[in-house]
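REVIEWER CHECKLIST
Item 1: Sequence provided? yes
Item 2: Single chain? yes
Item 3: Sequence as submitted:
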Amino acid sequence: MALKPKSALLTLYGDYGLRRGRREIGIGSLIDLLGNLGLSEQAIRCSVSRMCRADLLEVRHDNNKSFYSLTIQGTGLMETGEQRIFERTTKHWDGNWSIVTYSIPEEKKEIRNEFRKELGWLGYGPLCDATWISPNNRADEVEKVVKRLRIKDNVQVFAAKHLGQTDAQGIVARCWDLETLQQRYADFIKRYRPKLDDFQNRILNELLVKPSDCFVERFELIHQYRKFPFMDPDLPSDLLPDDWLRSEAADLFNRYYGLLTEKANEYFDSVTRNYQEARRT
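Item 4: Structure as written out by the authors:
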């Protein structure tokens, strides 16, 4: 699947604009950096403009140059994503379920769809159409979403234990497709384990590693891995299969990401410095 400009920009700002404190990136730098990934100048400029209108980016002009940084809303979005990517933990379950029920009328179906997306992002799964559950208590985060979407009167949140005949694993199987997610973790490991081994061998044998190659490789690595927090509900270990691959995939990601970082940052810094010193827009 072709890389989408907005998705690429979010990855770039999340990885460099947020984690390294480089919230402001010049338009020329964005064009040069993302050009390595096959994106055209026109596509990048159009996407940057749309993200400004969506209040994700804001612009600062300095003579004939334009610099774009994350807005408060954009920063919040990136911080939430970063936490899910880099601070993932597996907890034990206390046996309680957090339950969200809602009744949102058809004339607000766009808001209803947005609420469902937000619930999925928070790790809730659909027990039935208007009842979503999670073994993790994220009621405070649900409340923030409800407040932002202005649906306080349409949503109820409960905490309860299950007293029915279906066991916890049966409920999990009904609410989340762990089999497909497990396969995606396996595919990620199959794709990146040889890449990590090859990179380690190149370093061990003191072979040349180009900073631009490290930038592209780290970008593609995090762009692939950042999809998992959208799919993985972060279930407690008690509710997961014994051979669950998330920890192995996370370890692989962190090791490879760490090895690529120094030279990837070197390339990013050289590109941003060149734009700042150049006389072009």
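Item 5: Key structural point noted by reviewer: The mean pLDDT is 89.
Item 6: Recommendation: ____
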